[in-house]
Design a protein that fits this description.
The chain has 3 domains: 83 residues; 118 residues, Immunoglobulin-like (Sandwich), CATH 2.60.40.420; 117 residues, Cytochrome c-like domain (Cytochrome Bc1 Complex, Chain D, domain 2, Orthogonal Bundle). β1 and β2 form a beta hairpin. The radius of gyration is 29 Å and the shape is elongated. A 5-stranded mixed β-sheet has the order 3-2-1-5-8. The chain has a 5-stranded mixed β-sheet with strand order 4-10-9-6-7. α3 runs antiparallel to α4, α6 packs across α10 and α9 crosses α10. The longest helix is centred in the N-terminal third of the chain and has 32 residues. It is an alpha+beta fold and 371 residues long. It contains 10 helices and 10 strands. The structure holds heme C (HEC) and copper (II) ion. The site of heme C (HEC) has 25 residues, from α9. The site of copper (II) ion (CU) has 7 residues, from loops.
């Protein structure tokens, strides 16, 4: 039994302290590049189970074909009643060997599961919110991003939440995946020792692995692994980017950057989408053409915007639509816009409103038109 002979060697490999590796393990037939500290164990377990199963599939199939041919009933054979005789040795063999193998499957799987489930105490925490159809990554200093940025060489924990339906956070190169469940917090951790820098091609893939609607594929993002110093610089800059934009360029620079988070649902040029186009939006809320547009509760803009009404100004209405999108739902659209409370602040809302007021200065993708 070659498979059985190699088990002690496999056990020894796993027990030995993992040698310090200098590069991610290359992509194989089944698996992409393995770039986290658990990737080696996960791949080993997967390969081990695959090889054992493959070996037995082959053994059983080949023997079956041989026996079928060799022991087939030939013309003139007497019909024998009753099965083959009992053979204790044979029966013990085919019970004990698979027994040991399935215990080995369990051992490697369970050990790996516990390792991946136990978050190291000194982990760097990132709050992750999955929503239809984007990721929001929030760092301890308040910085936010749509792609994931992590420091290299230390454990990182992702605290996973979902704001609407089930999503699943999957980073194939790190061999980690877990569901993001509305109303519940889950987490995963990993450590990657190999910086990718800010190079898109070197960065790892991050996916939503739970089909969550028409924009599911918009949740394909990147993971950038930065050396600690670069990460610190990035995360500081990221936290303050909006404050660093000069007031005079708020709508032209910050507007388009923020619009990137709205673009999958709101067009700028009238193209129908999941949400109302922003073309003419400022006119509508400001009492111009289309201002009698109805909400699903039967009210129109004129009923809720104006002195003494729910919103004193159109700006206040737009801000509120960003933070409490479900309060007044524009018909015939669905109540599917996620709240941007805590993600787009007052200054961000100002930038967006500034952009809405001057849409003629932007192209259909939100790029400022060069003058
Ligand atoms: C997942 C799709 C989606 C995303 C992303 C999204 N929205 Fe919306 N938005 C909608 C839908 C659908 C409506 C209409 C229903 C409603 O009022 O809630 C809407 C309505 C609005 C309205 C009211 C429009 C009107 O005609 O009165 C504003 C303002 C708005 N969104 C701003 C934003 C901003 C700013 C962002 C990005 C920061 C954004 N939305 C991102 C789907 C989205
Ligand atoms: Cu999803």
């Amino acid at each position: 039994m070659t498979m059985l002979d190699s088990i002690p060697t496999m056990l020894a490999t796993l027990a030995a302290a993992a040698p310090a590796e200098s590069a991610p393990s290359p992509a194989g037939f089944w698996m992409p590049v393995g770039a986290s500290t658990v990737a080696g164990d996960v791949d080993f377990t997967m390969d081990f189970i695959n090889w054992v199963c493959g070996f037995f599939l082959l053994l059983v199939t080949v023997l079956m074909v041989i026996f079928v041919v060799k022991f087939r009933a030939k013309p003139g054979d007497a019909i024998r009643m009753g099965g083959p005789v009992h053979h204790t040795g044979l029966e013990l063999t085919w019970t004990i060997i698979p027994g040991i193998l399935s215990m080995a499957f369990f051992w490697f799987g369970f050990k790996g599961y516990l390792d991946m489930q136990t978050v190291p105490k000194n982990s760097f925490d990132v709050n992750v919110t999955a929503m239809k159809w984007a990721w929001n990554f929030k760092y301890p200093n308040g910085a936010q991003s749509e792609d994931l940025y992590v420091p290299a060489g230390r454990p990182v924990r992702l605290i996973l939440r979902a704001s609407d339906v089930l999503h699943s956070c999957y980073i194939p190169a790190f061999r980690v995946k877990k569901d993001c469940v509305p109303g519940r917090t889950t987490n995963i951790w990993f450590q990657c020792d190999f910086p990718t820098g800010l190079d898109v091609d070197a960065a790892h893939a991050l996916r939503c692995a739970e089909y969550c609607g028409t924009g599911h594929s918009n949740m394909n993002r990147k993971v950038y692994v930065l050396v600690q110093e670069d990460f610190d610089n990035w995360v500081t800059k990221q936290a303050n980017w909006l404050d660093e934009v000069p007031d005079s360029e708020l709508s032209s620079i910050a507007g388009p950057k923020l619009y990137a988070r709205c673009a999958q649902c709101h067009s700028l040029d009238g193209t129908p989408g999941i949400g109302p186009t922003w073309k003419g939006l400022w006119d509508r809320v400001n009492g111009g053409a289309g201002s009698d547009g109805k909400f699903t509760d039967g009210k129109g803009y004129k009923d809720i915007i104006g002195p003494g009404k729910e919103f004193e100004t159109p700006e206040a209405y737009i801000e509120d639509s960003i933070w409490n999108p479900g309060k007044h739902v524009v018909a015939p659209f669905g109540n599917v816009m996620p709240t941007f409370k805590g993600q787009v602040n007052q200054r961000g809302a100002e930038a967006i409103i500034g952009m809405m007021k001057s849409l003629d200065q932007f192209d259909a993708k939100g790029k400022p038109i060069a003058k």
